[in-house]
């Protein structure tokens, strides 16, 4: 694998291979010594133009557990804040010998631009670009679903026939988009649930069911997985719903809705959570919730992604 920029172009076999490698990486984390020598001598750069806690720390832990040298680059306090371009930043990283670049950027398409340029000859991994995609988040979500559903027999399995309801700010969510493409590839059925103002233009052409009624989706669809999304107020330049109380009343997973769900269903959230807005504390802290599992599984999945990108000769390098 040369780069990991999107889940849309992953085949079923590639997706399952990544998830299976993540299972192997997860097994190594049970050992007393968790480090592997796989990427010894490689340099991995965390190039983050947006604030992040879970994703950046998860990638740093993944790279270090594979014995890579890690450089953390934040736009704040760097030459970027002085007006340095992406091209100049990339050429600087190339000059220090970066083998892999994990990039999070506010502009959709920035990782693609970096991968297609001749500024740097490194494996590029998209850690979230604007409202476009966040492929490793979708992979860790699928990994978590597969483990919950198939248990110890999850290796080699897909998610065929599983129903997933993704609820909330679809318009601004790169997580929703990456999950849609990956879950469809793995055989799951996806329903987007949101107010009409938070369903993106053109979503009717996507391979997903669109719903504006969470109660109806939960009662009639009886989904296997309910994934709540954070309201991304920082990306909103207009009033997409009257107020937080109104949003929570109609589209939040409150205690009453959670109690009406199937007892074997799964509750997911990519974090950070707005408790009391899109999800209640009862739902978030329940045995059905996988919120902390997703964080734990993120390290294994990102180890697998880095392994695929940087171990041995990269295709096309």
Automatic annotation (TrEMBL):
<dbReference type="GO" id="GO:0004070">
    <property type="term" value="F:aspartate carbamoyltransferase activity"/>
</dbReference>
<comment type="subunit">
    <text>Heterododecamer (2C3:3R2) of six catalytic PyrB chains organized as two trimers (C3), and six regulatory PyrI chains organized as three dimers (R2).</text>
</comment>
<dbReference type="Pfam" id="PF02729">
    <property type="entry name" value="OTCace_N"/>
</dbReference>
<comment type="similarity">
    <text>Belongs to the aspartate/ornithine carbamoyltransferase superfamily. ATCase family.</text>
</comment>
<comment type="function">
    <text>Catalyzes the condensation of carbamoyl phosphate and aspartate to form carbamoyl aspartate and inorganic phosphate, the committed step in the de novo pyrimidine nucleotide biosynthesis pathway.</text>
</comment>
<dbReference type="InterPro" id="IPR006131">
    <property type="entry name" value="Asp_carbamoyltransf_Asp/Orn-bd"/>
</dbReference>
<feature type="binding site">
    <location>
        <position position="272"/>
    </location>
    <ligand>
        <name>carbamoyl phosphate</name>
    </ligand>
</feature>
<dbReference type="GO" id="GO:0006207">
    <property type="term" value="P:'de novo' pyrimidine nucleobase biosynthetic process"/>
</dbReference>
<feature type="binding site">
    <location>
        <position position="55"/>
    </location>
    <ligand>
        <name>carbamoyl phosphate</name>
    </ligand>
</feature>
<keyword id="KW-0665">Pyrimidine biosynthesis</keyword>
<keyword id="KW-0808">Transferase</keyword>
<dbReference type="Pfam" id="PF00185">
    <property type="entry name" value="OTCace"/>
</dbReference>
<dbReference type="GO" id="GO:0005829">
    <property type="term" value="C:cytosol"/>
</dbReference>
<feature type="binding site">
    <location>
        <position position="230"/>
    </location>
    <ligand>
        <name>L-aspartate</name>
    </ligand>
</feature>
<feature type="binding site">
    <location>
        <position position="54"/>
    </location>
    <ligand>
        <name>carbamoyl phosphate</name>
    </ligand>
</feature>
<feature type="binding site">
    <location>
        <position position="82"/>
    </location>
    <ligand>
        <name>L-aspartate</name>
    </ligand>
</feature>
<protein>
    <recommendedName>
        <fullName>Aspartate carbamoyltransferase</fullName>
        <ecNumber>2.1.3.2</ecNumber>
    </recommendedName>
</protein>
<feature type="domain" description="Aspartate/ornithine carbamoyltransferase carbamoyl-P binding">
    <location>
        <begin position="2"/>
        <end position="146"/>
    </location>
</feature>
<feature type="binding site">
    <location>
        <position position="134"/>
    </location>
    <ligand>
        <name>carbamoyl phosphate</name>
    </ligand>
</feature>
<feature type="binding site">
    <location>
        <position position="174"/>
    </location>
    <ligand>
        <name>L-aspartate</name>
    </ligand>
</feature>
<feature type="domain" description="Aspartate/ornithine carbamoyltransferase Asp/Orn-binding">
    <location>
        <begin position="160"/>
        <end position="309"/>
    </location>
</feature>
<dbReference type="InterPro" id="IPR036901">
    <property type="entry name" value="Asp/Orn_carbamoylTrfase_sf"/>
</dbReference>
<dbReference type="InterPro" id="IPR002082">
    <property type="entry name" value="Asp_carbamoyltransf"/>
</dbReference>
<dbReference type="GO" id="GO:0006520">
    <property type="term" value="P:amino acid metabolic process"/>
</dbReference>
<feature type="binding site">
    <location>
        <position position="137"/>
    </location>
    <ligand>
        <name>carbamoyl phosphate</name>
    </ligand>
</feature>
<comment type="pathway">
    <text>Pyrimidine metabolism; UMP biosynthesis via de novo pathway; (S)-dihydroorotate from bicarbonate: step 2/3.</text>
</comment>
<feature type="binding site">
    <location>
        <position position="104"/>
    </location>
    <ligand>
        <name>carbamoyl phosphate</name>
    </ligand>
</feature>
<dbReference type="InterPro" id="IPR006132">
    <property type="entry name" value="Asp/Orn_carbamoyltranf_P-bd"/>
</dbReference>
<dbReference type="GO" id="GO:0016597">
    <property type="term" value="F:amino acid binding"/>
</dbReference>
<feature type="binding site">
    <location>
        <position position="271"/>
    </location>
    <ligand>
        <name>carbamoyl phosphate</name>
    </ligand>
</feature>
<dbReference type="GO" id="GO:0044205">
    <property type="term" value="P:'de novo' UMP biosynthetic process"/>
</dbReference>
<dbReference type="InterPro" id="IPR006130">
    <property type="entry name" value="Asp/Orn_carbamoylTrfase"/>
</dbReference>
């Amino acid at each position: 694998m040369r780069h990991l920029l999107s889940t849309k172009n992953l085949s079923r076999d590639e997706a399952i291979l990544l998830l299976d490698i993540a299972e192997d990486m997860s097994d190594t984390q049970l050992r007393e010594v968790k480090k592997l020598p796989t990427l010894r001598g490689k340099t991995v750069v965390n190039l983050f133009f947006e604030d992040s806690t879970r994703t950046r720390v998860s990638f740093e832990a993944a790279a270090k557990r594979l014995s890579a040298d890690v450089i953390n680059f934040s736009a704040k306090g760097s030459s970027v804040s002085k007006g340095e371009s992406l091209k100049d930043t990339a050429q600087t990283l190339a000059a220090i010998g970066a083998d892999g670049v994990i990039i999070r950027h506010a502009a959709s398409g920035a990782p693609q631009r970096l991968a297609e340029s001749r500024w740097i000859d490194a494996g590029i991994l998209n850690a979230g670009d604007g409202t476009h995609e966040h492929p490793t988040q979708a992979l860790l979500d699928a990994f978590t679903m597969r483990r919950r559903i198939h248990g110890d027999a999850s290796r080699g399995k897909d998610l065929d026939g599983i129903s997933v309801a993704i609820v909330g700010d679809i318009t601004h969510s790169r997580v929703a988009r990456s999950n849609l493409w990956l879950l469809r590839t793995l055989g799951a059925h996806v329903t987007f649930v949101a107010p009409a103002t938070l369903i993106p233009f053109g979503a009717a052409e996507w391979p997903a069911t669109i719903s504006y009624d969470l109660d109806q989706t939960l009662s009639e669809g009886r989904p296997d997985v309910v994934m709540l999304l954070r309201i991304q107020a920082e990306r909103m330049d207009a009033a997409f719903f009257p107020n937080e109380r109104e949003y929570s009343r109609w589209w939040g997973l409150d205690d009453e809705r959670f109690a009406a769900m199937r007892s074997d269903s799964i509750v997911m959230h990519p974090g950070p959570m707005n408790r009391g807005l899109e999800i209640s504390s009862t739902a978030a802290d329940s045995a059905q919730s996988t919120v902390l599992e997703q964080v734990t599984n993120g390290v294994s999945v990102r180890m697998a992604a880095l392994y695929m990108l940087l171990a041995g000769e990269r295709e096309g390098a």
